[in-house]
Write a structure and sequence with these properties.
Layout (H helix, E strand, L loop, with lengths): L2 E5 L17 H13 L6 E4 L14 H13 L7 E4 L2 E4 L1 E2 L5 E2 L3 H20 L5 E4 L21 H12 L5 E5 L6 H7 L5 E8 L15 E6 L5 H8 L1 H9 L4 E5 L16 H18 L4 E5 L5 H16 L2
Parallel strand pairs: 1-2, 1-7, 7-12, 8-9, 8-11, 9-10, 11-12
Antiparallel strand pairs: 3-4, 5-6
Helix pairs in contact: 1-9, 3-4, 6-8, 8-9
InterPro entries: HDACs, His_deacetylse_dom, His_deacetylse_dom_sf, Ureohydrolase_dom_sf
GO molecular function: histone deacetylase activity
Pfam families: Hist_deacetyl
């Protein structure tokens, strides 16, 4: 097994307070489970580098990009808005009601987006390569021109467009199995026939989108609250033939683990074995279409124990064809 894990040095410094569910503890929980499972010792590791600002326009409105940098600069000087960080009040610029910037947030967001590009470079440099980006903040709710749902930049779309541009690819697939619809990803890639998006999510649920789909390059699987892994597996089964027909040259995964039965943020009933199953199935598709090349990026997952265990199952699935 050789999976490279990319981490950002500022991922655990982006902290919007003890009550915010998208917390640094998520990354610590993943690290704990990787250690206890033994996977930590057999994975490669790489430091994520911040994405160059020019690349952000592959997914985002230049005006929005400038506004994020401007708001981030303000938090070092403004005392108008505060949040509790490490027991002290620190300035915070809120981009929406859930998504904020404090002192380290912009660097963390740039590293989170940069990790996807680093991972693309890694997997494209050889065959039978898989990478996982254990970074935060997540990205799939960020739209072309706005932050949303804990997400500042759309990391997965940036990775996909980076791969298309820098490696002269014609077809890239994105698979998103977060419990929340990746509305930003769908909005940005809708109609881009170079990208196939396969997306599963609880519906109706936040952000109250995803059905009907916006374009023909999107395969959506809305899921009713309370469904178990058996139903999930049946509902997404058609993805694999569709992906094989599409013949992607790279598969990217928005890996959200908040559909787990123990997660407090939603109402689906998946367990670790379901994440192993879909990860292994995607690895088989990658082996048949794109020499095993997969880049996975962390999205949701808010019960810390379930998140860590699910990431371990995900990585085991990616490593076994």
């Amino acid at each position: 097994m050789t999976i490279k894990i990319f981490r950002g040095k500022h991922g655990t410094k982006h902290d919007l307070g003890n009550e915010h569910p998208e917390s640094p503890d998520r990354l610590f929980a993943i690290d704990d489970q990787l250690l206890s499972s033994g996977l930590e010792m057999i994975c490669e590791h790489g430091d994520a580098t911040p994405i160059p600002e020019a690349y952000l326009s592959l997914a985002h409105d230049p005006y929005y990009i400038k506004s994020v940098f401007h708001r981030a600069a303000q938090v070092s000087f403004s005392d108008d808005e505060k949040t509790v960080y490490a027991g002290k009040e620190t300035p915070t610029a809120w981009l929406d009601e859930d998504t904020g910037l404090m002192k380290h947030s912009l660097t963390a967001a740039l590293e989170s987006a940069g990790a996807g590009c680093n991972a693309v470079d890694y997997v494209m440099a050889g065959t039978e390569r898989q990478a996982f980006c254990a970074t935060r903040p997540p990205g799939h709710h960020a739209t072309y021109d706005s932050a949303m749902g804990f997400c500042v930049f759309n990391n997965i779309v940036l990775a996909a467009r980076y791969a298309l541009q820098n490696y002269n690819l014609q077809r890239v697939a994105i698979v998103d199995f977060d419990v929340h619809h990746g509305n930003g990803t769908e909005q940005i890639v809708a109609g881009d026939q170079r990208i196939m998006l396969c997306s599963s999510f609880q519906h109706p649920f936040y952000p109250h989108s995803g059905a009907p789909v916006l374009a023909s390059n999107i395969l959506a699987v809305p899921l009713e609250a309370g469904i178990t892994g058996d139903v999930f597996r049946e509902k997404v089964q058609h993805w694999f033939n569709a992906l094989s027909n599409f013949q992607p040259q790279l598969i990217l995964i928005s890996a959200g683990f908040d559909a787990h039965a123990e997660d407090p943020m939603a109402h689906l009933r998946l367990v670790e074995d379901d994440y192993f199953w879909i990860s292994q199935a995607l690895r088989r598709v990658a082996d048949s279409c794109c020499e095993g090349r997969i880049v996975s990026m962390l999205e949701g997952g808010y019960d810390l124990s379930a998140l860590g265990r699910s990431v371990v199952a995900h990585l085991k699935g990616l490593s076994r064809p």
